[in-house]
Write a structure and sequence with these properties.
Elements lengths: L1 E9 L5 E7 L3 E6 L13 E7 L8 E8 L7 H17 L9 H15 L2 H15 L19 E5 L3 E4 L8 E2 H10 L7 H12 L3
Helix pairs in contact: 2-3, 3-5
Bound molecules: zinc ion.
Zinc ion binds next to strand 7.
């Protein structure tokens, strides 16, 4: 099987509890001496086997192979990727069965990040996730006053739109947010605006 490591917790000694986002399941697994293995790292893609044991409720993680990314040695890309992938742990808390959407999203993001700016690529992937989960608010109703927005707009956590005048957050021209939500395009956003959007994303998926 293949999957992405979205969380690692220390158990006793060098043993680890490793949470893996697979194609159709989220797996909580136990890895003996995991802390000694460089293949176990946050946001790494791995090929693995699970072994169930009657003594334990949690399967044993074995035969782990690291599947590398073309940009694995680009420290900035890897750092941003790890910060994004880590967020899935809280986002998918208590979920066991998964739609293949999540694994497909991460797989395609790996290829997109070969050429594209990592923050832009990750924000675009996040917009797809919001749309898939029915949380992309392209009705442009202000979360705070519940009146439609049509000029300056601000975004809060989960990219929820609010009137710029209803909050003290950064203002965006309405057309830019429309382009982002409807055409999934970030072309009109400056690098400084991208940094700002990325920081909102880091607050949680
Ligand atoms: Zn408002």
């Amino acid at each position: 099987m293949q999957g992405f490591i979205i969380d690692i917790k220390k158990s006793r000694d060098d043993d680890l509890i490793v949470l893996i986002l697979g194609e159709t399941h989220l797996y909580s697994t136990y890895r003996f001496y995991g802390a000694r293995h460089s293949t176990i790292n946050i946001a790494y893609k791995i090929d693995f086997e699970l072994e169930s044991n009657y003594k334990s409720t949690i399967p044993r993680l074995k035969d782990v192979l690291h599947i590398s990314f073309p940009w694995i040695f680009d420290t900035e890309k890897l750092y941003l990727w790890q910060r994004f992938v880590k967020l899935f742990c809280v986002h998918l808390k208590d979920v066991e069965e998964l739609d293949p959407f999540y694994m497909n999203l991460l797989n395609s993001l790996i290829s997109i990040m070969v050429k594209q700016n990592p923050k832009r690529a990750i924000i675009q992937a996040y917009i797809q996730l919001l749309e898939f989960e029915g949380r992309l608010h392209s009705d442009y109703m202000c979360l705070l006053c519940e009146v439609e927005i049509n000029t300056e707009v601000s975004l809060v956590r989960s990219f929820l739109p609010v009137h710029a005048k209803c909050t003290y957050a950064k203002k965006f021209s309405f057309y830019k947010i429309k382009e982002l939500f409807e055409e999934k395009s970030l072309i009109s956003f400056t690098d400084e605006e991208i940094d700002y959007l990325f920081d909102i994303l880091l607050q949680g998926l």
